[in-house]
């Protein structure tokens, strides 16, 4: 991911791209992805410290997500966001 950002910044020096529409389009999606990531981190912390979050939040004990599943959803959504960002960049000829 880091190398994609560096290559985008280097090619951005030669092209003028208005980033404000892309920022407005993707900030809501980013907040949802960030929320799912932080929920996975919290679930991992609760399980490692012995907090019974299933009982506290009155979740169904048979059908609730573990922290690994939250991280899987996070990675899938992050991948989809990365693909959309690439389509946005390729529209300008990067």
Task: Report low-confidence residues grouped into runs of 5 or more.
Answer: none
Distance between the termini: 16 Å
Provide a count of the helices: 4
What's the story with the biggest beta sheet?
Answer: none
Query: Quick check: average pLDDT?
Result: 80
Tell me how many strands there are. 0
Spatial extent as radius of gyration? 18 Å
Rough outline: elongated
Estimated helix fraction: over 70%
What percentage of amino acids are in beta strands? under 5%
Structural class: mainly alpha
Order of helices and strands: HHHH
Oligomer: single chain
- Count the domains: 1
Features:
94 residues, mainly alpha, 4 helices, elongated
Can you describe this structure?
With 94 residues, the protein is mostly helical. The chain has one domain (2-91). It has 4 helices and no strands. The chain is elongated, with a radius of gyration of 18 Å.
Q: What's the SSE blueprint?
A:
Blueprint: H1 2-12, H2 20-49, H3 53-56, H4 67-91
Brief characterization of the structure:
With 94 residues, the protein is mainly α.
């Amino acid at each position: 991911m880091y190398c994609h950002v560096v290559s985008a910044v280097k090619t951005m020096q030669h092209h003028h791209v208005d980033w404000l529409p892309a920022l407005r389009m993707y900030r809501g999606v980013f907040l949802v992805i960030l929320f799912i990531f932080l929920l996975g981190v919290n679930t991992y912390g609760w399980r490692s410290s012995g907090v019974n979050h299933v009982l506290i939040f009155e979740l169904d004990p048979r059908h609730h997500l573990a922290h690994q599943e939250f991280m899987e959803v996070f990675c899938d959504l992050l991948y989809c966001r990365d693909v959309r960002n690439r389509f946005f960049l390729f529209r300008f000829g990067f």
